[in-house]
Amino acid sequence: MGNKHTPGPWAVAAFNVHQVIAIHDGPNEKGQTFMDGKHQHTVCTTSDEYDKGRFEEQSANAKLIALVPEMLAALQAQETAENKNANCPDCDGIGDWAECGRCSELFGDAIDLRHAVLLKVPA
Ligand SMILES: [Zn+2]
Known about the structure:
By secondary structure, this protein is an alpha+beta fold. The protein has helices at 55-66, 68-86, 101-120; strands at residues 10-13, 16-23, 40-45.
């Protein structure tokens, strides 16, 4: 499965809450990202025109779309855990994965990624 999409991280633009951007430079060694227009490009916008009645919805859509790279990573981690569990040299995928050290670490990582994404989903 090739990834032709824009690599993450994605974020909502600082000056246009309907615009999802990809950040080119960041986070740097200090954890800083630069959303100044010079270190980013647009992935998509959720609205072409200002629509007062749908402002919050369009903003929430942008926040949700910006999570796609993290959602993909969480899904891939789950898929990896399941595939490795099925071929695990320690448990052979038999029984409860939580009781296998190797598998519980993989599933734990996948669960952590999923929880981190879900906490960021706009309410
Ligand atoms: Zn295992």
